[in-house]
Amino acid sequence: MRVFIAGVDGYLGWTLAQHLARQGHVIGGADALLRRVWVDEMGSLSAIPIASVDERLAAFSEHFGECMRYFALDLRDHAALSAALAEFQPDAVVHLAECPSAPYSMIDFQHADFVQNNNVSGTLSLLFAMRDSCPEAHLVKLGTMGEYGTPNLDIPEGFFEVEYRGRRDRLPFPRQAGSWYHWSKVFDSHNVAFACQLWGLRATDVMQGVVYGTWVDEDSRLNTRLDFDEAFGTVLNRFCSQAVIGQPVMPYGLGTQRRGFLSLADSMQCLSLAIEHPAAEGEYRVFNQLREVLSVNDLAHVVRAAGEAHGLAVGIKPLDNPRVEAGSHHYCPESRHLRELGFRPSLPIDEVVRAMIGDLLPHRDRIAGHADRLAPTVQWRKQYTTPAQTSNGLRKELS
């Protein structure tokens, strides 16, 4: 298949490009390299050093025998995006090109406005470009389990049967997002569903749980990034980074918040299954993508045990929760569709976390040099701005 990955330079995108290439797919990619800008704006960097995009493309060509067709573009540049899709003519388009950070979106008005504009307008641009340039292609759009919030009901895969005043219907499950970022993803989901209804596009909306894990290769140019700052470091990646520098891991609040998790390797397997089993013409379907449900405290103890296996003493230091979220709640999401397509979870979380810490230990000085970026500063309930968050990076994007 010919697979076009929007956001190919990111944590998931660069990993997915290699995973699919190993399976024999032809890869095209687009990126504006904004993840690098955003993390720099937060005063941080990738714990695992990553190569420049030119070095990455050269390594890709050397290892996979075919150079990736790379398009340096922002999805909001509709003309450039349409031309890229018309040239590449993909069978599948994977949309990973969004700002994926709840804390980043909660800093202040400018950041909330930027995240929603970047994500919603970029997705709209992609939908119209696919309609005009590759209407038969299958869109695999990365959503998030955070769209659902934490309802006091089991969470279905996108839709549920409801009876009201004697009538029944199949309706989208209500969304209860918890950040301006998560609301942008809700808007995206509705827009993708409408495009399928309106134009007959085919789409799979992947409601992904929290992803953790490293992707390290003997050729360091193939390494994917791993962020640990408060905005772009997912919780388990951040905990592992704290462990390797001797900083206690920091669960927020009671630590009883429960979420769905899966490893980077399992995410690749799930996305591949979605790509290789496309939706029907006009179909909008939803896959909940997770392996297991764990609490934040569960994660802290997994990291403590993994650290001890490497001879590290890992403390646990709960912090006041900077977010507005339920501490204790029901959380039972369905995840049947991907398992029916053949998803089989790989290594258990404790083995993956031990391997992660092993991959991070050679870079402990690099992480320690930015240790102040691990603790939360963005408070959900008030406007908050720091000198690092008024950098030229964001002003350049907003201009």
Automatic annotation (TrEMBL):
This is NAD-dependent dehydratase. Residues 3-288 form the NAD-dependent epimerase/dehydratase domain. It comes from Streptomyces venezuelae. Belongs to the NAD(P)-dependent epimerase/dehydratase family. It holds the Pfam family Epimerase.
